[in-house]
Each structure stands twice: as C-alpha cells, then as structure tokens.
Amino acid sequence: MSEILSGPDCTTMTEVRAGVDALDRELVALLRRRFDYMDAAARIKPARGAVRDEARKAQVIEQARAEAERLGLPGEAVAAMWETLVEASIAYELRAFDAR
C-alpha cells in the first residue's frame, strides 16, 4: 500500500480518496471508543430515565460547534453532525441499559 499523504500534499484524486478512506477508518475506530463510553454510562447510571440528559446534550453539541469554529470549520454543519451522533449515542445507550 502506498503512503497516505496529508491533504495539502495530495496532487491526484487517487491520493485524496486514499487519504479520505484511511481517515474514515480512523473515525470509525474513534466512534467505537466513544460508544464504549456509552456502554459505561449504561452500566453506571442508576435509572433508564437518566440516559437522556438534554442539558448535557446541548453542552456536547455546543462544545463541538465551538471547537469546529476554532479550527475554521463550519460550526452549523458540525453541530448538525453532532446532533445525529448524540441521538445515536442515546439510542445505543438505551439499548445497552435495557440489556443489562
């Protein structure tokens, strides 16, 4: 396999696609780690009703938006992705809570 180049170093679409594919694998691995925390939360929380915490959800989304903007990314787009991520995490945690 050829070396994965950084975005600014890419000169062909093949290099760009290889970089995106490699990064997507890393992102999925990071999501696995994030969902491990959802497993822990489901184990630790005393009641199913504690799984959904709207104040914490808003905080997590706002932190992601602010960090995106700090890095020069579109904050609204990142916030929308985090809305989906957090809702998926809550659904996952509820399933894990019910399974325990």
TrEMBL record:
Protein name: chorismate mutase
EC number: 5.4.99.5
Pfam families referenced in this protein's UniProt entry, alphabetically: CM_2
Amino acids binding substrate: R17, R34, K45, E93
Provenance organism: Sphingomonas endophytica
A Gene Ontology biological process term: salicylic acid biosynthetic process
Keyword Isomerase: yes
InterPro entries membership: Chorismate_II_sf, Chorismate_mutase-related, CM_dom_sf, CM_II_prokaryot, Isochorismate_pyruvate-lyase
UniProt entry tagged with the keyword Isomerase: yes
